[in-house]
Design goal:
Blueprint (H helix, E strand, L loop, with lengths): L6 E5 L3 H13 L3 E5 L2 H5 L8 E5 L8 H11 L5 E5 L4 H9 L4 E4 L4 H33 L3 H10 L5 H8 L3 H15 L4 H10 L7 H6 L2
Parallel strand pairs: 1-2, 1-3, 3-4, 4-5
Length: 215
């Protein structure tokens, strides 16, 4: 997904602005989709490729700032660049606080906009990359047996094989077997890497009584 062709979305009710932006962005090599209202844009299903949104403030129905608030909840991974002819300091502050990466006023410089788009798409690509990695980790974790998960949850907090065996009521040799299987399936080269994976998966921490037993 993170390596797929990026898409730049444009939402502006001025047809001349949409057409000029589309021409500029296509000339720069971007794939572009334009919309004349926030609601029409929201009706378009989310994409799973690097992307960004160029958004006007004054729009019919749902305005740009209100659309941004919805995007934070519904499509939090999409970077937003505001372009407006009616901006002021309070609007700029609100947009930036809500997460916009740029706030440009019309007339804008084409090279400035293109650089902003490049930065926005790179941010989107990085986020998609992290999401892809998270999905891969989840798939690997789902492939573990329940016992392998039990062992993994204990070894990543620093318990020794003997302590894990005592906690789970199994032999140290069996712990080593499950630990090895877990590391192989998770493709972890070390316990430190396995612990990092557990943290990224937000796995439940071992209960306090487990840590007491380790002392």
């Amino acid at each position: 997904m993170s390596q797929a062709s990026p898409v730049v979305f444009v939402v502006d009710d001025d047809v001349s602005i949409r057409e000029s932006l589309e021409a500029l962005l296509q000339k720069a090599g971007w794939c572009v989709e334009t919309f004349d209202s926030a609601l029409k844009f929201l009706a378009r299903p989310p994409v799973v490729v690097p992307n960004c949104l160029i958004l006007d403030i004054a729009l019919p129905g749902l305005n740009g700032l209100d659309l941004q608030k919805r995007m934070v909840v519904e499509r939090p991974g999409m970077p937003i660049i505001f372009i407006t002819g009616q901006g002021d300091i309070p609007m700029t502050v609100q947009a930036m606080k809500t997460g916009a990466i740029e706030f440009l006023t019309k007339p804008y410089k084409g090279d400035v906009l293109l650089q902003s788009i490049k930065s926005a798409v790179e941010r989107s690509k990085a986020l998609l990359g992290r999401e892809e990695e998270a999905q891969i980790l989840k798939a690997r974790y789902a492939d573990l047996t329940s016992r392998e998960r039990d062992v993994m949850s204990l070894v990543v907090v620093g318990l020794l094989n003997k302590q894990v065996g005592s906690r789970l009521g199994i032999s140290e040799i069996t712990v080593k077997k499950h630990r090895g299987n877990a590391m192989r399936k998770m493709r972890a080269e070390s316990l430190v890497e396995l612990a990092t994976m557990a943290k990224r998966l937000r796995l439940p921490q071992a209960p306090a009584e487990t840590l007491v037993l380790a002392k």
